[in-house]
Amino acid sequence: MKYIFVTGGVVSSLGKGLTAASLGTLLENRGLKVVLQKFDPYLNVDPGTMNPYQHGEVYVLDDGAETDLDLGHYERFTNCQLTRLNNLTSGQVYQTVLNNEREGKYLGKTVQVIPHVTNEIQNRIHVLAEHSKADVMITEIGGTTGDIEGLPFLEAIREFALEVGPHNALFLHVTFVPFIKAAGELKTKPTQQSVAKLREIGIAPHILVCRCERPLDKDLRRKISVFCNVPFEAVIEEKDVDHSIYEVPLMLQREGVDELVCRQLHLDTPVPDMTHWQEILRKIIAPQRRVRIAVVGKYIELQDAYKSVYEAIIHGGVANDCGVEIQKVDAEDIEREGAEKLLKGLGGILVPGGFGERGIEGKILAARYARETSLPYLGLCLGMQIATIEFARNVLNLTNAHSTEFNPDTPHPVIAMLDEQTKVTKKGGTMRLGAQPCQLVVGTKAARLYGAFVVKERHRHRYEFNNAYREIFQKADFIFSGFTPDGKLVEIIELANHPFFIASQFHPEFHSKPHQPHPLFKGFIAAAHAHSHSR
Ligand code: GLN
Fold this sequence. Notes:
Elements: E1 2-8, H1 16-28, E2 34-40, H2 52-55, E3 59-60, E4 66-67, H3 70-77, E5 87-89, H4 90-103, H5 113-132, E6 136-141, H6 151-164, E7 169-176, E8 179-180, E9 185-186, H7 189-201, E10 207-212, H8 218-228, E11 235-239, H9 248-254, H10 257-264, H11 275-285, E12 289-297, H12 307-319, E13 322-330, H13 331-337, H14 339-343, E14 348-351, H15 360-372, E15 377-380, H16 382-394, E16 402-403, E17 413-417, E18 432-440, H17 445-450, E19 454-461, E20 463-465, H18 470-475, E21 478-483, E22 490-495, E23 501-504, H19 519-534
Parallel strand pairs: 1-6, 1-7, 2-5, 2-6, 7-10, 10-11, 12-13, 12-14, 14-15, 15-23, 16-17
Antiparallel strand pairs: 3-4, 8-9, 17-20, 18-19, 18-21, 21-22, 22-23
The structure holds glutamine.
Glutamine (GLN) binds next to strand 19.
């Protein structure tokens, strides 16, 4: 087993996760089995209780773990199977250590950061190594070098590398080389300082990935190499991508990163064949067709809040050789200005998941506009609940129909709390979570798109379609296209007499990859393109 540790310096948001994932792509294409892992230094046990403004999207795994959004990149860029073992937070480490202490596992000892916390972190690397049976494990340390809370992780990986030996562990540091306008040049000082900090901790990086908005010329590379004590060829330029994040693996390949890694770790593997990846990129950058899709949400100004949704839309485009321009529409703007003004002329509308009341009425207006104008609609989780409420109010004339999440006193609770949730009082990790089977109804559009009878999709919700209303919906044009195998929960719905109006209680976006676009997104983009074309 070989270990690669990815750290970051100078500032956050450098795209460490993308760099780690892209390296994973390259190593996989060299025939290696790769596993990726993320360490998050914050004290929350998981990001499940954090607001998207704090954290961006919460990425849900098959086993129901609520994890960091970088795990989404790992799954989209590689074939590795992730579980809750692949994301470790300081909160989990301390929870384990404190439980051990109470159980008497350290009897007689003073419990300390070194060795108890650091051992627990290393233990987690060993456990995943064993569990994954991979050839290479890439571990990304969240945060920035120098953060107080990240120190135990850095100490742990320093010791770990020492233990496994020089050709079994590699440190890759992602750093920032800013362009200073007034001077008209790139500056290397922050990188020097960040590497100095890392070396002070005892970690000497083997590879420096320099994030920059301008090309890094030879002189600068030499300067960084000398001052940071990293070989010249291991100073890597990672420029901001022009079009798509899926350029990053190809960029790193051009810079020879995978070659460097394999040399350092004594991995004898062939040069990766990235033609399929180039073809994916071609479909994103120079597609044969184009379409515009609206995403109607409430965290529109945040790049990361609907990360997997945006990516899955792009994958749906790849499946149709169709470039997608995503128009981010604030649901509250629709409340103020009306749906037509903001949604007219688009190919389709997507309403993603969400919690809380803000923007709900705007989303309902968007769903109504899609239904009434035959505009393709894809609803995800809350997006399905919205479609249900809209149909109840405006087609079935159930006045003030609502979800009890937003109006506990509604006369028509068409969306209500899951039975299993009514007794839940704790907030962390208690929703209906993870992959669950859904049985599709033969003859529905959903079943046709999936081309399957049973699918497994990931969930994250507390509310669901209220079965007391099944009959009256069914008598109208509202079709239930999928249920849990026991028939109890509605998992997916669609409208008859509409070119494409599908909404799921689960989150299909978590299962989409550029090389395996999700069937619902594929169908949605095809319908959206057909819709734009027909006008
Ligand atoms: N708030 C809704 C629920 O809990 C929808 C959740 C979601 O969209 N992920 O059921």
